[in-house]
Amino acid sequence: MSFALIVPTYNPGKSWSNNVAAIKSQTLHPDEVLIIDSSSVDSTVTESVNAGFEVKVIDTASFDHGGTRKMAAENCSSYEFVVFLTQDAILFDENALQRIIERFSDSKVAAVCGRQLPRQGATSIEAHARLCNYPSNSFTRSISDRASFGLKTAFISNSFAAYRVSALNEVGSFPENVIFGEDMYVAAKLLGSVYSIAYAADACVYHSHDYTLWQELRLYFDMGVFHAREPWIRQQLGGAEGEGLKFVASEIKYLFKHAFWRIPEGLLRTLLRYTGFRLGLMENKLPLWIKRKLAMNKSYFLQ
Known about the structure:
Blueprint: E1 3-9, H1 16-24, E2 32-37, H2 44-50, E3 54-57, H3 65-75, E4 81-85, E5 90-91, H4 96-102, E6 109-117, H5 124-133, E7 139-141, H6 146-149, E8 160-164, H7 165-170, H8 182-192, E9 196-206, H9 213-229, H10 231-237, H11 241-258, H12 263-281, H13 288-294
Parallel strand pairs: 1-2, 1-4, 2-3, 6-9
Antiparallel strand pairs: 4-8, 5-9, 6-8, 7-9
């Protein structure tokens, strides 16, 4: 099975050498490693070229979450599969790529989401988010599961995800000019075309973020904007309100055991996530200057 590994980069700094080493150590080597670099000013391009990777440099301002990945996938259209990785996601072991590609042995599977583990030194709140959202059991979901899982039916993250190129092309590849969620957009399209989405719990990366309270609100504002502008996804799959309540209960239980003094902060973060998401859903009623202030992806509102 032929496949390409695609990694968008922008000034990852010294940590990039860890990514390069992890990619080079894989038991199943990609037929091509394509780095889409947004004009980094550090050593990313040099390190990538020295590692034997293909590098395509684009203008910083031209990066688009969906459009850039669509362009990259088109550059790798001769392969059966494409695997996407973000620059801050480090492959867990030498079998990560092999295990994510193996899930395509089921011809109905059009996309596979890998498991994300907390990075070394992760805070308790940060660690819980990964352990709760990325379980240790693998599964495969189709459109028939939407009554049980709602939006979670299209569970996927381009921090570590693989796609069947023929199916990706069939649904028009990634959307251009989206603020966020190009991965969920494609997953929902694939489910609507009667494909399945798999989750491979044994294909892992280290990837998590220690967001500030303000960043937490801004991230969920972007999510809300995405769903406001792509209402068909919630109409097709349903909402995820029940999942939110499960997450809060799980977080309180986890923090009570590991860091009870952070429970008030966890509850405050829940309030900020909810507030950010609701503000995003009503973004058409907000003035542009407020949207630019709230958005994590500020360039989206500069277009």
